[in-house]
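Technical note accompanying the year-one report. For the benefit of new consortium partners, we illustrate the data format agreed upon in the data management plan: each record pairs a sequence with a C-alpha cell string. No post-processing was applied to the example shown here.
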Amino acid sequence: MVQRLLFVLSLLLVVRPAFAFDTSKVDAATLQGLAGDGQLVVVEENTDGSLKLVTAGGRIDAPLDAVWAQITNYEGYNTWMPQVEKVEVRNRNGNTVDVFFDLAFQFSVISKEVTYTLRQMETPKNSIRWYLLDGDFSVSRGSWHLVPTSDGKSTLVFYSTYTDLVSMGWILKTLLEEQPSMELAIQASTAVMVVKSLKTSIESAP
C-alpha cells in the first residue's frame, strides 16, 4: 500500500494538474493495479509545504455509465453524499453547471452550516472539475475522474478536493492553528467518505 501511495504521489509531482490527479497521464492497467480492491489516498502539497489537494480513489462494481449518471445528478447528492442537506442547480450552459450546496459541516466538536456555489465543468463520462463561485469559504476546488476497468464491469473513481478551512470562521481557524495536522485529517476523511458513500449508494441500488 505504501508503494502504491508513493508511486501515485510521484506522478502527481511531475504532472502538477490544476485541479486533481489527471488519470489521462496513466494507463488504465496501472490505475487498476493501484486502486486494487481497496481505497487509495494521495496527498499533494504546495512548494511551501501547505496542503494543495487530497485525492481518494477506489473501485466501484458498476459500469461507467451508472457511475457517471450518479455524479452528474447533482440534485440527488443529498441522498448519498455525507453532510449535504440541499442541492440546487442554479444554471446550466452545455457541460458547465453552477450548483448550490447547503452543507451541515461537522468534525469533532465543530458543527456549522455552510453554503456555497461551485461551477462544475463536465467532460462527459470522463471527469468533472469544479471551482468556487461564492460561499462561506475563500477557496474550494476539486474533481471527479472515472476510468472503466478492462472488462467494463467496474469503474475506478478518483475524487480530489481542497477547501480553505481556515476561512470558515474563527473557531475552526483557531483550532487548525493550534493543531495543524487536523486540516489534513478533515480533508482526507472527507474525500474517503465521499468515495465510500458513492460506492455504497451505487452498489446497493436495485
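Partners are asked to follow this layout when depositing records. Confidence is low (pLDDT under 50) at residues 1-18.
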